[in-house]
Amino acid sequence: MRGRLLSLLLLALAALPARGGVKPDFTTWLADFRQDAQAQGITPATLDLALGTIQPLPRVLELDQRQPEFVDTFWNYLDARVNARQLRLSHDKLWIHRKPLYRAQGRHGVPATLLVALWGMETRFGKSLGGFPTLSALATLAHDGRRAAFFRAELLNALRILQDGHASLATLKGSWAGALGQMQFMPSTFVEYAVDGDGDGRKDLWRSLPDAFDSAAEYLNRLGWRENEHWGREVRLPAGFDYGQATLNNRKPVSQWAALGVTLADGKTLPKSDLPGAILLPQGYAGPAFLVYRNFDVVMTWNRSINYALSALLLADRLQGLPPPRLGRGADNRRLSKDDVQEMQRLLRGRGFETGDPDGVPGSRTREAIRAFQETAGLPVDGFASATLLEQLRQTGALQARGPQPEMAIH
Fold first, then answer.
1. Which secondary-structure segment (H or E) carries 42?
2. Which is the CATH superfamily of the domain at 2-67+129-196?
3. Residue 209: CB partners within 8 Å, gap ≥ 6?
4. From 122, 154, 234, 343, active-site residue
5. Residue 1: pLDDT band by 50, 70, 90 thresholds?
């Protein structure tokens, strides 16, 4: 799971190589790792089997250091993943594999429709499991040093999976970052949450769909998924709504949002409820609005991308016969390049709105800087980085560069 990987990586960004100082060569590093692994319960037999095949993979480092060239919009992201073809495939998979899917739902309380949606988004229903040797990929990243502690721990967990007989050396393959199986679990997630769904004594997330579905459902359940509780719904915001309230950290009972004039997307009154929810604007004030609850937070733990979480949950809704989002299609749908975002960050900093280093990523500091600029410029304060906002920043910059203009003489 890419987003779960990202959230774990953020915890280790400041980690230095395990022994500090100058990075050792790979052979020396691997010998040191072997001693640590044996001290932590990995047997000599497992280490002899596994470490003889490990080698550094330059391609893994290339992929680790690559940054996306564009910041995609919600609508572009959603339309690429929740479309007629994906709906048809998802319906087919839901029907074909209904027994293990609904058995997992019954055991763990997580909808079969959501399991299918996640399965399709993670690996295209098992077609894209990844072909990188997991042990070599993780060792490459652990030796690299930028996030050594994180990947060293993941490598140890991958060895535990091998030692416990859940995968053979040939089977232990996945993404460049070490994500495994039909649902792309990191090894630590595998060790903590994987389930033997078919009762054969092994947790095979590559070839056993019952194992994969039960494991995904177990993981979501233990993250806090609440059975028979909505994840969220599309809503309509009233005229004059304070967009500064539209943040995931600003939770109010549904009844309070209703008192502020928020309605269902079709204009009908929100249901009477004290369930806490937050207003989410994935494409700014001009795009759609969603009122999201605790189950949305659970999927955000699975993957920290708002676009991913919304797309997976909306796909699951469509599989239950619910309609697609109906509002906000007129929003600015132009993608921003990394260079565009860097320019936006420089322009904001030039006006005294601190974004941190211009890195081309519209993170939390950039969003706060955007909000501050929007407030001073009399714009809707949604904190959203759009092509329209970049044009506005360029325009105000051009006006400032021109300076005050001479007054016209009156005759």
1. none
2. Bacterial muramidase (1.10.8.350)
3. 97, 100, 126, 182
4. 122
5. low
